[in-house]
Amino acid sequence: MIEGRFISLEGGEGTGKSTQAKALANALGKRGLAVCLTREPGGTPGAEIIRELLLTGGDDKWDLRTEALLFAAARAEHCAKLIRPALARGEWIICDRFVDSSRAYQSVSGELRDAEIMQLHQVGSKGLMPDRTFVLDLPETVASKRATARDRGDSDRIGSRDSDYHRAVMANFRQFAIDDPKRVRLIDARHSAEAITDKLFENIDDLLS
Ligand code: TYD
Questions:
Q1: Domain, as residue range, for 138
Q2: Is 101 a pocket residue for ligand 1 (Cβ < 6 Å)?
Q3: What pLDDT digit, counting tens, does each position of 70-122 carry?
Q4: In Å, how far from its chain's centre is CA 202?
């Protein structure tokens, strides 16, 4: 049986992940591949309910450990009900954020180590990892301007954390690309949307053959 491929897009807010996820899904679809475009937190009815719990309210609504568990729970639901079945049918999954977001964001406080976040992922989602992960890289000042323009001052519970937090998140993402260059590719997101999509394609050539 043909196994599908799993691609995740990662990065801070305002880096263009959603635009690129759509562009990549369209382009793969035009090549005749079955594509499933999805996002985290969310992607299934249950996980979307958890998304709402996570992203609304004040910064101190959840203890940081609870927050990490909720992201892992949403992901477990997403993997079990949508991602694994689609991969088993031979589809390509394009996912706007996945476990690297938990590793980048939920580790910033220092409350949880990377290995602990991966343990939650092991328990919840049997450690499922993407075949390729793109980190869209923008200087934090550029990304935050774009995110502010998009959200018109109404950013979500995590997006509204301060610039030091978001700088630390971006530094974590860059480190993943250094630690695991086979899976995680850092993409300079200062180029045009079309140029970035071309770059993503160059970086999945091995998965297409
Ligand atoms: P998203 O809607 O993708 O935000 P944006 O479009 O602004 O990038 O993600 C929602 C927020 O949740 C975003 O601030 C990142 C955060 N997040 C985590 O902190 N941990 C996670 O595991 C995931 C998936 C998202």
A1: 5-208
A2: yes
A3: 999 999 999 999 999 999 999 999 999 999 999 999 999 999 999 999 999 99
A4: 20
Q: What is the token pair recorded at 168?
A: 């630390």
Mutate-to-test residue for ligand 1 from 52, 56, 101, highest number of ligand atoms within 8 A of CB: 101
| Tokens (6 digits) for 37 | 């475009």
- Alpha-carbon distance of 209 to 205, in angstroms, equals 7
How many domains does one find in the chain? 1
CATH number at residue 107: 3.40.50.300
Q: Is 40 in the pocket of ligand 1 (CB under 6 A)?
A: yes
> Per residue in 19-36, is it b (16+ CB within 10 Å) or e — as a string?
bbbebbbeebeeeeeebb
CB 132 within 8 A of CB 208: no
H-type helices in 79-139, by residue range?
Answer: 84-88, 99-105, 114-125
Q: Using one digit for the tens of pLDDT, what is the confidence trace for 158-184?
A: 998 999 999 999 999 999 999 999 999
- Cβ-contact 37, 25 below 8 angstroms: yes
Give phi and psi for 157, each to the nearest 5: -55, -35
| Structure tokens, 4 | 């599908």
- The pair of three-digit structure tokens given for residue 73, joined into one six-digit string: 């729970």
pTM above 0.70, yes or no: yes
**How far is the centre of ligand 1, averaged over its atoms, from the C-alpha of 1 (Å)?**
33
